[in-house]
């Protein structure tokens, strides 16, 4: 037995949850209880109601979408600080990669914990070679963050 995809009509094995041809879902949530039923099922496997009756009893556009819609993200103004460690490449040649890593870890710890980043509720987002990127205003927002 195979399941025909409602979007493209491709035949799929019964154990799959997405169409192998178009990646559309092969499960239909019950409008009454939310149980994930297979495409083509006539009765809900969770509550036993006929699936076409469940759709008619519950206005899905209002009930399910209101429950399933996540809250909108909050828009914030943030400040991004980029810092470039001058002489980073030369430090590798002089100290070697291991010692350079120790020095960079110390610099990052001081920035993150003791100095400007921590003082203004920022956090270090990325460190790549001699570049450091810090963000201010998220997740902790201040009116004067910029």
Describe the 3D structure:
- This protein has 146 residues and is an alpha+beta fold.
- It is 32% helix and 19% strand.
- The chain has a three-stranded antiparallel β-sheet, covered by helices on one side.
- Mean pLDDT is 75; it is low at 58-69.
How would you summarize what this structure contains?
32% of the residues lie in helices and 19% in strands. The chain has helices spanning 51-57, 60-68, 88-95, 97-114, 116-119, and strands at residues 3-4, 11-12, 27-29, 36-38, 79-84, 123-128, 131-136. The strands form three sheets. A three-stranded antiparallel sheet has the order 5-7-6, with helices on one face.
**Alpha plus pi helix count:** 5
Q: What gyration radius follows from the Cα positions, in whole Å?
A: 27 Å
Q: Level of helix content? A: 25-40%
Order of helices and strands, N to C? EEEEHHEHHHEE
Shape: elongated
> Mean pLDDT across all residues, rounded?
75
For the biggest sheet, the summary is:
3 strands, antiparallel
- β-sheet strand percentage: 15-25%
Spatially, the strands of the biggest sheet line up as: 5-7-6
> Unreliable stretches, pLDDT < 50, 5 or more residues?
58-69
Number of strands: 7
């Amino acid at each position: 037995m195979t399941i025909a995809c409602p979007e493209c009509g491709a035949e799929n094995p019964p154990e799959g949850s997405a169409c192998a041809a178009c990646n559309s879902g092969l499960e239909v949530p019950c409008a009454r209880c939310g149980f994930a039923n297979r495409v083509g099922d006539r009765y809900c496997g969770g509550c036993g109601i006929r699936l076409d009756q469940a759709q008619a009893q519950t206005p899905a556009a209002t009930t399910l979408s209101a429950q399933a819609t996540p809250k909108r993200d909050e828009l914030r103004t943030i400040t991004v600080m980029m810092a470039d460690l001058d002489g980073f490449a030369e430090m590798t040649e002089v100290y070697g990669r291991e010692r350079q890593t120790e020095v960079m870890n110390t610099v990052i710890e001081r920035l993150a914990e003791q100095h400007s980043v921590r003082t203004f509720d920022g956090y270090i987002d990325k460190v790549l070679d001699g570049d450091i990127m810090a963000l201010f205003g998220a997740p902790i927002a201040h009116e004067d963050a910029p």
